Model the fold of this input.
Amino acid sequence: MEPKSGQLYCRNMSIFPVLLMMMNLHVLVGSIRILPKPGLSLKPSYEMFVRGETIVMYCRCRCPVATIYFYGGSKVFHQFNISVPPCDAYLRFKADDNFEGTYQCQCLLFENNGSLSSPSHPVQIHVQDKPSPPRVSTVQGPAASPGKEFVIITCRGEIRSRGGIFYLYKNQFANFTQLRRVTAHEQSVNFTVNVTGKDTAGNYSCLYQTEISGHPVASSFSESVAIFWKGKEQKQDHTMVMLVHLYLSVFVLILMVVIIVEHFASGSPLAGAKKDRRKRTIHVFTTGL
Done:
């Protein structure tokens, strides 16, 4: 059945608002622009800053930008008005307990009627009187010959621009066992420990010293790593322990067998019945006489 002209007109009128809404939505989406986050970084980027050490906070926005805001927590503590590229700002200050916390930056852009960008990713500032302790790890080296093994201990720290020294200690004694001098581009060192006997076994840790604000400053000790001696003496001790366990097991087994045999020999019903039968037999022969 063919539709009448009135029905076709009504259908066209019902489709028209949907098309109009889709066109308006397309225009609206095209006018919305997601503003990029600015980039925030610390120079130098250390896990721990020492009091009095210079810190540079660097925020970079997309051009053109009018103002750059620096946030400490949720409060604006500094702002820069930018008129010409480059669209970035530096904030230089001395490390102090007052500056410890979380920081972000934000950009006020010229376009889109002065739109405000999203906040940057946060950066953390921690301040103490020593640099962060080094991180330590070990790798078992291949045996150069039978009975001669070595362990590689890696220490990683935060060496400043004038270089420093890594020290390796055994059981945190007063005297270090090894040292390595490094430049600012060498943030880690490898110490080799030859495991030749019980004297080399123990807990090893490291620390580093670097120049900060014109003075040498030492870090705290790292966590300890244990090195064990696996020589002939240890194998002999292990064999003796195994023999002792074996002898004890055999002794306990024999003792249990003896107890079970005595139990059945003296206290079983069968043994009592045999004794009674012998007594009755002797009594019968005596009565007959």
